[in-house]
Structure formats: C-alpha cells, structure tokens
C-alpha cells in the first residue's frame, strides 16, 4: 500500500495548514505580510492545480482498475537484453547514474532504473559497478542497489565496492570511468541521469570497447551525443516514464497518462495561441502565460 | 586497399591525429580568420553600449578550468568592454570546482594584479579604476540555484565578505548592491546548467535581464532560451566569444592592446575551431562518398 | 514499518514547502524564511555527504592496495593526491585560526600551485578530448543511409559550412540558412523535448511527493 491514501489531495490539504503554522513560527521579521497568494504566481498556481488535478484524477482511475496503455520504449525493452549479453560474456555491467545531485528529478529517475538493473544483475549473478560523482547520489545509489540485491534474494552477492564514490570533479570522474571502460571492458554500459560535457567522452569510450550502450537524459544538449554513440537513448520524458514502464504499476501509469493529457492541453494552447496571433495579432495567450512566470 | 576502402574502415586514431595536428598549427601560426557577428552577440554589445556610466553589471563565473579556453575570453571581453565604458562590475562565482579561481584569474588578467588587504586597489591596466568602487569580486558561494534565489532577497547575506574576506559593506560598490534590482543585467559565463538557471529562475521569476556566454556544446540548448526571450543575448562557444571580442577590439584600442598581449584569446581559438570544423566536414563528405560508392558496388554485384 | 514511512513523510514535507512558499505568503513572511532555511540545510547536508564519499574512496582504494588488486599502484597515487591536496586546503583554512599562524600562506600557495600547474591543465585536457571524439562520432554518424539520415546530414553540412568564414565568402547565403535551421527546426525540436521533459519531471515529482514512486529510496511499491 502506498503511504498516501486514496485521496492524496486531501492529505495535501490536511498537511498544508500545519506546515503554514510551523513555518510561520520560524519567521523572524516583524513586518506583517499576512496570508495570501503571491500575486505574480496566480496563473502558475492555476496551472499547478490543473496539472495536479488531472494527474490525481488519472491515479484514481488507475486505482479503480482502468486498463492503461503505454507505448513501447525500445531503450527500456533492451535493458534485459543488455544484462543478458553481459551475463553470457561473463563481463560486468556498468551503470553511471549521471553527475547530478539526488535533488534532481532526473537523478531520482536514474536511481529507479538502477534498482531495476541491479535486481536483474542479482538474479543472473552478473557483476555490476555503479561509479558515482555526487556524494548524495552515491549514498542513495548504494542503498538502492543493496535493496535490489536483497529483494532478488541474493544479498550475498552485494558488496559496497560495487557502488564506489570516485570524485566530485566532473572530468576527473570522467577520466576514471572511461579508464574503467577501456581497461575492464564492461559488456553493457548504462548512462542514465543528468549528464553534461562528459556525455560524449563516456559514450564514445564505451562505444570503442564494443559495449551495448543504453543512455537516457533530459539534458537536451547532450542528447545528440548519446543518439550518435549509443544503441538506445531515452529522450527526456522517456527517462521520467522509465520507472512506471518497468514496474508496470497501474498507479504510476496513471501519472503518465495524466501528464500526457496536460501535454495535450499545452499543445492545444500553443496552437490556439498561434491561430489567435495570426488572425488578430493579439498576444493574449502568451501574455496569460507570461503573467504566470511573474514577468 | 584503395583510398575509399581506407576511408570506409578508417581507424579513428587517424582522425584523432589529423585533428590534433590541425589544432596545433593555427595556434602557432595564427590565420586571422574573418568573423561574422551574429544578432545574439551584437545584442550584448549594443546593450552594454546603451548603458549609462556608473551602471552595474553582475558577472557570474559559472565554469571551471576545463572550459576555460572557451569561457575565459568571454569574461575578459565583457570586463574590458564594461570598464572601458565606465560601467561598474560585481563578480561572483557559482561553479563549485575552480569557478572562484577562474574569477580571480580573469579579473586580474583584465585589470592587473590586485592585493586589496594590503592596499593595492587600483587597476594597472585601467588607471583610475579602483577595487571596491568600480569593480568588486565576491568570491564563491555553494548552493547553485538556492544561492541564486537567496540573492534576490539579500546579496549581503549570501556574500557577507568578498574574495579576500573583507566585509562587503566596507566597499562602496558591494555595499550598494543588495539585490538584483541594483544591477542592470547579469552575465553568466557558463558551462553546464548554471546559465540555464539564470534564465529560467533569475530572469523568469525575478525579472532581471540575463545574458549568457556558454560552451559550444551547450549552445543549441541555450538558443531555445534566447529565442524565447529569457536571455537578451547569447555568446555561443568560441565563435560567440570571437565575435564579441572582435566588436570590443575594433572599438576600444586599450582592450585590443591588452587582449593581443595574451598567449591565447578568442580569435586564435576561432582559427583552430574553423580549421578543425573543415577537417571534420571533409571527412564526413569523404565518408559519404565512400559509403555511396560501396552501396552502388554492392547493388551492381547483386 | 515506521522506518520506511518516515523517509517518505520527510520527503513529502520537504517537497511541499518550496511549492507552498512559491504560491502563498504568510504572516511575517515565515514561509519564505522556512524555505530559505531548508535550502541552507541542503547545502550543509551535501557538505557532510561529501565526507561519506571520501570515506568510500579510502575504503575502496586501501582494500585495493592491501589485496594487491589490479591497478593497486594507481590507488596509491590517488590516495596520495587526495591527502596532499586535502592537507594544503586544510592548512589554508586553519592558517587564520588563533595559534595556527605558523602555517602562514604555505597552504594557500601549495594549493594554488597544484591547482594551476596540475589540476587546470588536466581539466582542459579532458575537455579538449571532446574535439577528437566529436570528429570520430560525427564521421561515423553522418552517413546518408536513409532519408532521415540524409536530412540530418544535409542540416549538419549547412550548419558546419555556414559558420566557416571562407565558405561563407563563396556562399554568402549559408549563414542565413544556418540561422534558420538553428532557430527553426532545431529550436522547435529542442522546445518540444524540453516541454515534454518538464512535464515528465513534474509528474515524477508528484509521484515522489505522494509516495507513489519510492524505488529511488530503495523501497518497493507497497512498502
């Protein structure tokens, strides 16, 4: 059972006054502002409520057992193939959860995929290595891998050296990981998470060793590098959908459906905005959005 | 094996060797490649030209030594441009590894050696420009996005002292700048994501005009923000740096003399980049010709 | 059970505070104050987490040395570098404390010397590898194997030639074409991905805040 009861929104509403009270107690300023809505962010609040409402409604639908369809994501279907290949070759699987901190949603998505990969590695007895750059991500990754081995019933195969911390520096980290790729030749490389200038260095080094490579990031600038050097790439939202896709959990799929409905609304907004602007020269649709950003 | 077979099955190390050789030669023998200024770069130059003397620019050093060759010339060109026009500069660093060193290095490269704790405050390169009055360096603060948000509340709380640990209230300039409202615009010299935060948080939420100088690999991403109006100017990689440098050098003789004294500056980097681009282009064309010939030969055999 | 619920509850509360403080004001601006405090905590927690990382580096590499595992000599270099750089950094930090004046500026000098003479060139070297890797990746990827790949190749050629100053002298229309590709199809595709990714991130955040998504915590659905 999930921590949040069926009516998640009610929980949010119950918790909010408590939080407001608790945080106001921390206030140090004498100036009395009072309760209210930040006027610059009213439109954003409407969008936030709309988004949350649609997603929560879809979660409710999913809980009631409504069948939900999610399109095929080739990169995620290839996860088992990649681990299987490593198992056959008797070589390790390397999973790099990006260089972002655990505060980034992208990193959390990567950790969800990591848990899935680690579980398969534990089941097949395939060696796994998860090098880390960010210390908080390192702590979370170690915990996720440990749990995965426990769940797979193979805690004996887990050791802490599987999830090493390398360094906080981006390029020193890259040097160590590419060195490991070239020397130890993992048969499968997962480059999933938040990546920056090191993306091509890691992916090209992995490509030169002939490893099967699955990448995933929401960093748009790095996507071309992954697409040209990796066998499969999870593009932007596919990465965020990964845990739902892999777990096939209906509630999570409900979230994805809610998100897609909001995307359709956004697209509709854009199309209407273009039509209104072209026909009348009015920028009303754009102005409404700008006010949501406080501009 | 004929040439086309060699190209088709090219060992990547040959390509590395060629790129290496053609990167070094223009550094030793500069070619002085022409530069065409793009609107995104011209916009920064025009904005600075349109500012009144005494107005303040916030320069955020959001990169480390790794991207220095691309980012350093951007920072230098802006500092020289601003000081030449009697504008004032507040510098800070948000990039964790080496941002603070890049900041002091580039500042001293432009204004000359400083030692404020021992009273060396005046710039040797821009006589009359005084540390604390015309320019100030607040040093580094950890926290990235959280720090940027806090700066909107009160910069003095985020940076209570400058790079040399002197309280910021002791200098006229840093004492004056308490929030984003006190500066004309922010220029983020960035690698990675910090430049994006300036656009989608500081500009979008707090309304401060933002310009970014980014690395070439990030430029396509930053163009989306530029086109959306979340930054009013964008210097993309060495090309953008060379364009801005050209504009400054053509109009400010002192900046030209100082820049050309350096071992490396954007125009030289642009020479290298142009040559390497040409090599890559030639190889892509050759690779495709070989591929198409090979495909034709295979079809004819069938 | 509580052990598993507490992290999810903390995550929920910590995630909700910035959202509420973004939308609402409170007496004495307490919400914003609380949110700022939370953000400062994050910085402090990250600092302590780095210690965990350093401990891991020592554990893994000391074991490597004691077991004489493959590459154990490199582990010695790594630990020596860590200790030397760390020592200079600490000396610099301590030099301003009472009773530590004898350290003088040696910490700062040593740290800066290593930074300028070793760290900086190594960093630039790693980043400059991109030039080589971009060349080989582009050479391999840009092949007109089918219509889509052909279009990609054509766009790449226009952009690469459009910024080459000598080619532009012969074909002066190319920069305009380059700008069109960058500001038109390129920016449109990038924005499409950014919008999708932003909504994906928002949906993922909601799943995390509501405790639906918990595998990142090492917990299973239903725990």
Question: In words, what does this structure look like?
Answer:
- The complex is a heterotrimer of chains A (295), B (302) and C (223).
- Helix content of chain A is 60%, strand content 9%.
- Chain A has 295 residues and is α/β, with parallel strands linked by helices.
- In chain A, strand 4, helix 7 and strand 5 form a beta-alpha-beta unit.
- In chain A, helix 2 packs across helix 11 and helix 4 packs parallel to helix 5.
- The radius of gyration of chain A is 22 Å and the shape is globular.
- The N terminus of chain A is likely disordered.
- Chain B folds into two domains: 50 residues; 213 residues, Rossmann fold, CATH 3.40.50.
- Chain B contains 13 helices and six strands.
- In chain B, strands 3-2-1-4-5-6 form a six-stranded parallel β-sheet, with helices on both faces.
- In chain B, helix 4 crosses helix 5 and helix 11 crosses helix 12.
- Chain B is elongated and about 80 Å long.
- Chain B starts with a helix and ends with a helix.
- The model of chain B has no long low-confidence stretch (mean pLDDT 91).
- The radius of gyration of chain C is 27 Å and the shape is extended.
- Among the domains of chain C are: 69 residues; 72 residues.
- The chains are: A alpha/beta (295), B alpha/beta (302), C mainly alpha (223).
- Chains in contact: A-B, A-C, B-C.
- The interface between A and C is large, with 104 and 81 residues.
- Strand 1 of chain A pairs antiparallel with strand 1 of chain C.
């Amino acid at each position: 059972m999930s921590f949040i009861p069926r009516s998640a929104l009610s929980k949010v509403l119950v918790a909010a006054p408590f939080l407001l009270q608790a945080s106001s107690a921390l206030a140090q300023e004498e100036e009395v502002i009072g309760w209210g809505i930040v006027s610059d962010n009213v439109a954003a609040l409407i969008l936030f409520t709309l988004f949350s409402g649609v997603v929560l409604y879809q979660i409710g639908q999913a809980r009631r057992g409504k069948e939900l369809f999610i399109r095929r994501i080739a990169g995620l279907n290839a996860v088992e193939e990649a681990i299987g290949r490593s198992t056959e070759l008797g070589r390790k699987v390397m999973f790099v959860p990006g260089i972002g901190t655990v505060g980034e949603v992208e990193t959390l998505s990567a950790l969800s995929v990591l848990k899935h990969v680690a579980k398969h590695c534990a089941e097949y007895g395939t060696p796994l290595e998860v090098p880390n750059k960010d210390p908080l991500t390192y702590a979370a990754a170690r915990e996720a891998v440990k749990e995965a081995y426990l769940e797979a019933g193979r805690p004996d195969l887990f050791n802490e050296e599987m999830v090493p911390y390398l360094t906080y520096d981006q390029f020193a980290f890259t040097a160590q990981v590419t060195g490991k790729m070239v020397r130890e030749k993992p048969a499968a490389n997962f480059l999933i998470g938040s990546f920056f200038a090191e993306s091509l260095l890691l992916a090209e080094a992995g490509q030169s060793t002939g490893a099967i490579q699955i990448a995933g990031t929401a960093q748009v600038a790095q996507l071309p590098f992954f697409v040209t050097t990796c066998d499969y790439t999870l593009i932007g939202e596919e990465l965020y959908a990964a845990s739902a896709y892999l777990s096939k959990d209906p509630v999570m799929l409900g979230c994805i459906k809610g998100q897609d409905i909001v995307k359709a609304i956004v697209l509709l907004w854009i199309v209407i905005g273009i039509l209104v602007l072209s026909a009348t020269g009015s920028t009303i649709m754009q102005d409404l959005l700008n006010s949501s950003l406080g501009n | 094996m004929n040439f086309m077979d060699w190209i088709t099955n090219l060992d990547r190390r040959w390509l590395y060797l060629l790129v290496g050789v053609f990167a070094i030669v223009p550094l030793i023998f500069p070619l002085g490649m022409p530069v065409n200024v793009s609107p995104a770069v011209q916009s920064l130059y025009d904005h600075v030209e349109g500012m009144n003397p005494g107005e303040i620019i916030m320069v955020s050093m959001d990169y480390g030594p790794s991207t220095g060759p691309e980012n350093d010339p951007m920072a230098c060109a802006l500092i020289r441009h601003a000081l030449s026009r009697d504008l004032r500069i507040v510098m800070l660093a948000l990039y964790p590894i080496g941002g603070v060193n890049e900041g002091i290095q580039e500042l001293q490269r432009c204004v000359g050696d400083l030692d404020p704790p021992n009273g060396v405050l005046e710039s040797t390169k821009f006589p009359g420009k005084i540390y604390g009055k015309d320019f100030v360096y607040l040093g580094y603060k950890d926290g990235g996005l959280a720090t940027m948000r806090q700066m909107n509340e009160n910069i003095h709380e985020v940076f209570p002292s400058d790079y040399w640990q002197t309280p910021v209230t002791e200098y006229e300039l840093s004492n004056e700048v308490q929030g984003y409202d006190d500066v004309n615009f922010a220029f983020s010299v960035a690698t990675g994501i910090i430049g994006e935060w300036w656009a989608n948080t500081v500009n979008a939420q707090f309304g401060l005009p933002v310009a970014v100088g980014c690395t070439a690999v990030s430029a396509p991403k930053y163009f989306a923000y530029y086109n959306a109006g979340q930054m009013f100017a964008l210097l993309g990689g060495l090309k953008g740096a060379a364009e801005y440098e050209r504009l400054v050098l053509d109009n400010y003789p002192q900046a030209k003399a100082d820049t050309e004294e350096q071992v490396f500056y954007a125009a030289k980097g642009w020479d290298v980049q142009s040559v390497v681009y040409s090599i890559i282009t030639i190889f892509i064309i050759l690779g495709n010709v070989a591929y198409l010939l090979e495909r034709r030969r295979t079809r004819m055999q069938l | 059970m509580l052990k598993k619920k507490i992290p999810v509850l903390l995550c929920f509360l910590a995630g909700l505070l910035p959202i509420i403080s973004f939308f609402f004001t409170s007496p004495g601006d307490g919400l914003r104050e609380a949110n700022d405090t939370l953000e400062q905590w994050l910085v402090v927690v990250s600092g302590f987490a780095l210690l965990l990382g350093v401990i891991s580096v020592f554990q893994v590499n000391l074991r490597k040395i004691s077991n004489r595992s493959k590459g154990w000599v490199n582990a010695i270099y790594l630990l020596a570098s860590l200790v030397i750089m760390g020592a200079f950094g600490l000396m610099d930090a301590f030099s301003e404390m009472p009773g530590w004046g004898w350290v003088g500026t040696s910490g700062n000098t040593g740290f800066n010397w290593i930074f300028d003479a070793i760290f900086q060139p190594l960093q630039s070297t790693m980043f400059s590898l991109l030039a080589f890797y971009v060349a080989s990746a582009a050479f391999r990827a840009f092949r007109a194997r089918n219509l889509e790949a052909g279009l990609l190749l054509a766009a790449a050629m226009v952009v690469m030639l459009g910024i080459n100053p000598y080619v532009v002298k012969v074909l002066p229309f190319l920069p305009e074409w380059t700008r069109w590709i960058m500001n038109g199809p390129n920016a449109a595709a990038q924005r499409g991905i950014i919008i999708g990714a932003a909504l994906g991130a928002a949906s993922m955040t909601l799943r995390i805040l509501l405790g639906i998504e918990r595998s990142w915590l090492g917990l299973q659905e239903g725990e």
